[in-house]
Amino acid sequence: MRVLALDYGSARCGVALSDPTGTLATPLDAVERPASKKGFATLVTLIRDREAGRVVVGLPLGLSGDDTPQTTEARAFADRLAERLGPDVPVSLYDERFTTAIAQRAGGTTASEDSRAAAVLLEDWLARHAAEAQA
Questions:
Q1: Which of 53, 57, 114, 127 gives 1 a disulfide partner, CB atoms 3.0 to 4.6 angstroms apart?
Q2: Are the C-beta atoms of residues 80 and 27 closer than 8 Å to each other?
Q3: What is the pTM of this model?
Q4: What is the pLDDT of residues 25-63, one digit of tens each?
């Protein structure tokens, strides 16, 4: 099953997609203004066209683990996306603290920083779920 990760931001949304085995995460083009009608439709089309079986939205918690205004916005976006996609494509939230910093240090690709952060988020999510499946 392919998993698609989103590093949500009001200006841009980074996007990364796993391979069918759930081993590799590849950054894709970021989507501009994802909360707008056009941006949201672009994301929904991308999720369907890439046949994602799950969507993981980065949850921007504060360093202390508390919610911030961005956390509230990301939760609302994930809820809106889940409602639009329906029960066939689950949408979940995943702690994204430090993903942008890791993506900045890693560099090395032509993908946007937002999509590299989504790839870091997805790699962590995939590793965690692989470990849970083995336990």
A1: 53
A2: no
A3: 0.88
A4: 999 999 999 999 999 999 999 999 999 999 999 999 877
